[in-house]
Amino acid sequence: MASDVATTTGVLDPTCALVLVDLQVVTMSFPAAHNMGTVVAHAARLASSFRERALPVVLTVADLNHPPAGRTQFARPRAEVPSASLALSDALGADESDIVLTKSGWGAFQGTDLDETLRARGVTQVVVAGLATGFGVESTARQAYDAGYHVMLVVDAMTGPDLEGHDHTVARVFPALGQVVTTDEVLASLND
């Protein structure tokens, strides 16, 4: 995954949570700058490692059939998305211990009880990955940052619809919200 941004190895808080954004059957079928199989494989490795350490794993589901009411320049209403297509990717190996939340907006915090759920578990840091870099992932990272969490963004476990937008967000936005890391860096930090 080429980028002109150097990653910075981050430090994980003792009580951190993994937030995987919108890795659903339908969203994984959208055009992507990077190989979707690789992105999902990295996300699955992260989820497995967090589960092994009894750290929270949050899986978000975008309810594409009920988007926020605000006007946009994209045509609405769009075609109804079948419920099977809204399902999470089987590759994530969802576990009964996972926190699964459905959201209608881009970010995982707005309009959900995620903040309260994480705070009740003592979480001080979120590790964010998923789809799409400049949309759901960025919105979730902004909301987490604004709520006072330490934010870590796993650049090789996310992608966007085009390389230019992905690289812009990684280079210009993410460093202001937290630490930009790779899957291997997170896994190494978990093993420290």
Describe it for me?
This protein is of the alpha/beta class and 192 residues long. It has one domain: 3-Layer(aba) Sandwich (Rossmann fold), CATH 3.40.50.850. It has five helices and six strands, in the order βαββαβαβαβα. The chain has helices at residues 36-52, 114-120, 133-146, 163-177, 183-191, and strands at 16-21, 57-62, 99-103, 125-131, 150-159, 179-181. The chain has a six-stranded parallel beta sheet. Helix 1 links the parallel strand 1 and strand 2. Helix 1 (36-52) runs parallel beside helix 5 (183-191) and helix 3 packs parallel to helix 4. The longest helix is centred in the first third of the chain and has 17 residues, at 36-52. It is globular, with a radius of gyration of 15 Å. The relative contact order is 0.24. Mean pLDDT is 92; it is low at 1-8.
Helix content, binned percent: 25-40%
Q: On the 0-100 scale, what is the average pLDDT? A: 92
Beta-strand residue percentage = 15-25%
The main sheet comes to: 6 strands, parallel
The CATH topology corresponds to Rossmann fold
Number of helices: 5
Which regions have little confidence, pLDDT < 50, spanning 5+ residues?
A: 1-8
Strands, total number: 6
Q: What strand order characterises the main sheet?
A: 3-2-1-4-5-6
Give the SSE order as H and E letters: EHEEHEHEHEH
Any idea what the shape is? globular
Return the CATH class: Alpha Beta
| Reported CATH architecture | 3-Layer(aba) Sandwich
Q: What structural class should be given to the helix and strand makeup?
A: alpha/beta
Gyration radius (Cα, Å) is 15 Å
CATH homologous superfamily descriptor: Isochorismatase-like
